[in-house]
Amino acid sequence: MANGNEREMSLSRVFWITLRRDLMLAYRRRNDLVSPLMFFLMVATLFPLGVSPDPQFLSEVAAGVVWVAALLATLLSMDSLFRSDFDDGSLEQMLLSPQPLSLLVFAKICAHWMISGLPLTLMAPLLGLMLFLPQEGMSTLVLSLLLGTPTLSLIGAIGAGLTVGLRKGGVLISLLVLPLYIPVLIFGTGAVQAASTGLPVGGYLAILGAILALGMVLAPLAVAAGLRISVSD
C-alpha cells in the first residue's frame, strides 16, 4: 500500500515538474506566446474589412469566425510543441526515462493549452463584442472554448508527435489534424449559435465534454506512440 502511494506521489511530482518546466521555457520565448494571440486577433479584426461591416451580418457569423480563428491560432503553435525538445535532445531523454511517456506528454499538452488555448479563451469575449455577438451567446462562447481548446491541443499534439522528426512538419500537421478538428468546430459553433437564438445548449456542451474526456484518455497514448515512431526513424 505504501509503495502504491509513493508511486502515485512520484507520478504527480513528475507531472508538475514537467508542466512547470514547459511553462518556464514558454515564458522565456515570449514571441511564441504572442504570435497565436496576434494571429487570433488579426483574423477576427480583418474579417469585417474583407467581407462586410454590417452589424447584423457580423452577429450571425461571429461564433464561426471566433471559433475558426481560435482553431487556426492553436494549429499555428502546434509545430513547436515537441520541436525544441527534439532539437536539444530532451525528447530522447524523455523516451529513455523510466516515467510513463504518456504522462510526460500529457503535462506538455497541458502547458501548451495554458499558454495558447487559455489566453485565446480569455480574449474571445473581446472579439465577440467587436463582431456584435449577442450577449446571450457570450458566456456560452467562453464555456465552449474552455471545453474545445484543450481538445484542439490534444488532437494537434498527435500530429506534432508524428511529424516532429521532419524539418517542415507544419503543413503536414494541418493535413493530419484538420479533419479531426471538424467535430469540435461544428459543436462549438453550434452551441454559441443556439445560445444566441435562445435554444438549449446542454447537448452541444455535453458532446464537447465527452470529446474532451475521450481525448484526455487516448491522445497522450497516441502521441507517445507517434513520438517513438518519429524518433526511432
UniProtKB/TrEMBL annotation:
<keyword id="KW-1133">Transmembrane helix</keyword>
<dbReference type="GO" id="GO:1903607">
    <property type="term" value="P:cytochrome c biosynthetic process"/>
</dbReference>
<keyword id="KW-0472">Membrane</keyword>
<comment type="function">
    <text>Required for the export of heme to the periplasm for the biogenesis of c-type cytochromes.</text>
</comment>
<dbReference type="GO" id="GO:0015232">
    <property type="term" value="F:heme transmembrane transporter activity"/>
</dbReference>
<feature type="transmembrane region" description="Helical">
    <location>
        <begin position="141"/>
        <end position="164"/>
    </location>
</feature>
<keyword id="KW-0813">Transport</keyword>
<dbReference type="Pfam" id="PF03379">
    <property type="entry name" value="CcmB"/>
</dbReference>
<dbReference type="GO" id="GO:0005886">
    <property type="term" value="C:plasma membrane"/>
</dbReference>
<keyword id="KW-0997">Cell inner membrane</keyword>
<feature type="transmembrane region" description="Helical">
    <location>
        <begin position="204"/>
        <end position="227"/>
    </location>
</feature>
<dbReference type="InterPro" id="IPR003544">
    <property type="entry name" value="Cyt_c_biogenesis_CcmB"/>
</dbReference>
<dbReference type="GO" id="GO:0017004">
    <property type="term" value="P:cytochrome complex assembly"/>
</dbReference>
<feature type="transmembrane region" description="Helical">
    <location>
        <begin position="103"/>
        <end position="129"/>
    </location>
</feature>
<keyword id="KW-0812">Transmembrane</keyword>
<keyword id="KW-0201">Cytochrome c-type biogenesis</keyword>
<feature type="transmembrane region" description="Helical">
    <location>
        <begin position="33"/>
        <end position="51"/>
    </location>
</feature>
<dbReference type="InterPro" id="IPR026031">
    <property type="entry name" value="Cyt_c_CcmB_bac"/>
</dbReference>
<comment type="similarity">
    <text>Belongs to the CcmB/CycW/HelB family.</text>
</comment>
<feature type="transmembrane region" description="Helical">
    <location>
        <begin position="57"/>
        <end position="82"/>
    </location>
</feature>
<feature type="transmembrane region" description="Helical">
    <location>
        <begin position="171"/>
        <end position="192"/>
    </location>
</feature>
<keyword id="KW-1003">Cell membrane</keyword>
<protein>
    <recommendedName>
        <fullName>Heme exporter protein B</fullName>
    </recommendedName>
</protein>
